[in-house]
Amino acid sequence: MAENVTETDPVALAEAELQDSQLAEAAATLFGDRLEKAHQFVAHLATSGIERGLLGPREIPRLWSRHVLNCAVIESLIIRDARIADVGSGAGLPGLALAIAREDLEVILIEPLERRTVWLNEVVQDLGLKNVTILRARAEQVRGNVSVDYVTARAVSALVGLLDLTLPLLEGEGTLLAIKGASAPAEIEKAQKVLKRFPVKSVETVVAGEGLLADPTTVVKVSLG
Question: Which of 55, 140, 198, 209 is the most exposed place for a label (fewest CB within 10 A)?
């Protein structure tokens, strides 16, 4: 009977993933006293997020591991009280996951599609997040209008194209954190010519969430300055 319930209840199906004790511990560690807001976020993703096409229905059983926790762990790479621009925020990943995990962060979600910004506004209001601003715009349209310490991106484009979208927002100083997978080293190699156009201090592949997640998050970290 329980199996039938989860098949018809997307929230229950998503929450069933936390029966894994490692995932449950990771969620508690990352979100602390804001864990309930993380549960609310996952509920939005599993219902209206799927219904409106922000994620595919096959993602429901792995919303915590593949999406929310995978994104939230990069908070360990961000200093306190930082300002962040999340480019191509889509379903609020990683931007909303970071805003929930770290109340000290000021997060600007940059998303050009209206249906996505409408959904993001609904979620932010429901969760009562005071540290989030939503801009309906393309990244290149907000250059000079936002001042941030970090730019984040996930599943926006290959690094060679992503750099021109994100690095100008740092205005010569700050850090890009691009969530990537095993292709990260190859993407860095292909982006060498583009990187030379910016005052790059360092480019490296780092891992976030080791010891916390079974599958840690690979991040391309580009520092300017």
Answer: 140
Q: Is the bond preceding 216 in cis, omega lying within 30 degrees of 0?
A: no
Entry pTM? 0.94
Give the three-state DSSP class for 181.
coil
Residue 110 per-residue DSSP state: E
pLDDT tens profile 8-37: 899 999 999 999 999 999 999 999 999 999
* Residue 121, beta-bridge partner list: none
pLDDT digit string, tens, across residues 43-69: 999 999 999 999 999 999 999 999 999
Strands 106-110, 132-135: pairing is parallel
Closest CA to 97 of 63, 140, 52, 62: 63
Distance, CA of 171 to CA of 147 (rounded, Å): 8
CA distances from 196 to 27, 190, 192 (A): 39, 12, 6
Task: Detail the DSSP E strand segments found in the chain.
Answer: 83-87, 106-110, 132-135, 150-154, 174-180, 200-208, 217-224
